[in-house]
Amino acid sequence: MDSIFKALNDETRRGILELLRQKDLSAGEIADEFHISKPSISHHLDILKRADLVSSEKKGQFIVYSLNTTIVDDIIKWIITLKK
User: Fold this and answer.
1) What does the alpha-carbon distance between residue 11 and residue 79 come to, in Å, rounded to a whole number?
2) Per-residue pLDDT averaged across 9-38, rounded?
3) How many domains, the chain?
4) Which residues lie in coiled coils (predicted)?
5) Do 41 and 27 contact (CB within 8 A), yes or no?
6) CATH number of the domain that 22 lies in?
7) Which of 29, 36, 75, 81 is a Cys-bridge partner for 25, taking CB atoms 3.0 to 4.6 Å apart?
8) Model confidence over 41-78: pLDDT tens digits?
9) Are 50 and 38 in contact (CB under 8 A)?
């Protein structure tokens, strides 16, 4: 759970998740939406992958990233238990 909250603690990573909420994207497509270097985007994607918030699939010469909604559902359920 710590890796999830570390991943969510960054504005750029939250922005990446928002983009992936709309549709699956390649790293290049994601990088085009931010004013930071492509290696920095790769670093952010790696952190999101290690937290299991995104998954990736190689399609031809590109890697396409998608939001892992299962882990998001688990986080929401856990947060709801804090309210009880």
Assistant:
1) 20
2) 95
3) 1
4) none
5) yes
6) 1.10.10.10
7) 29
8) 999 999 999 999 999 999 999 999 999 988 878 888 88
9) no
CB atoms within 10 A of CB 24: 16
Token representation of residue 66 = 């998608």
DSSP letters for 2-60? HHHHHHHTSHHHHHHHHHHHH--EEHHHHHTTSSS-HHHHHHHHHHHHHTTSEEEEEET
First to last CA, the chain: 19
Domain that holds residue 69: 2-83
User: Which pLDDT tens digit goes with each residue over 7-17?
Assistant: 999 999 999 99
Q: Is the pLDDT of residue 84 over 70?
A: no
Structure tokens at 42: 């790769």
